[in-house]
Amino acid sequence: MEITEADAARxxxxxxxxxxxxxxxVDGILRLRNEGAYCALYDVDKGRCSEYQxxxxxxxxxxxxxxxxxxxxxxxxxxxxxxxxxxEADLKGRRLKGLIAxxxxxxxxxxxx
Length: 113
Ligand code: SF4
Prior knowledge:
Blueprint: H1 5-13, H2 18-21, E1 22-24, E2 30-32, E3 34-35, E4 38-39, E5 42-43, E6 48-49, H3 57-61, E7 64-66, E8 72-74, H4 86-112
Antiparallel strand pairs: 1-2, 3-4, 5-6, 7-8
The structure holds iron/sulfur cluster.
C-alpha cells in the first residue's frame, strides 16, 4: 500500500517508528512494510488492523481503485467490495485520484532531493 507523508506522520504521532512500518522504494514512493504475508500494522492474533482509526488514507479508500484507463473501479478480490455503493465508490474514487497525485508529487520530490 502506497502512503503519504501525512499518513506516516500520523502513525508516528501514535508512537510508531517510521522504519518499522514503511519504507521508500527505488521509485521514491513511500509504502507500508510487510512482515511475512501481512502488513506490518496488521495484528495477526486479533485479525485486524492495529491502527484502524489512524490507518493510511489508501486503506480507508480501499477497495475503491482506479483502473488502467483511469476509471474508478472496485477491487473484486476484496470480500467487502459488494457493500460499496456507487455513490461511495465515486466519492472515494475522486479522493483516490487526489491521493495518487500527492503520492506521485512526494515521490518526485524525494528523487529530486
Ligand atoms: S488497513 Fe491497516 S493492516 Fe490493512 S494495509 Fe492498511 S495499515 Fe495495514
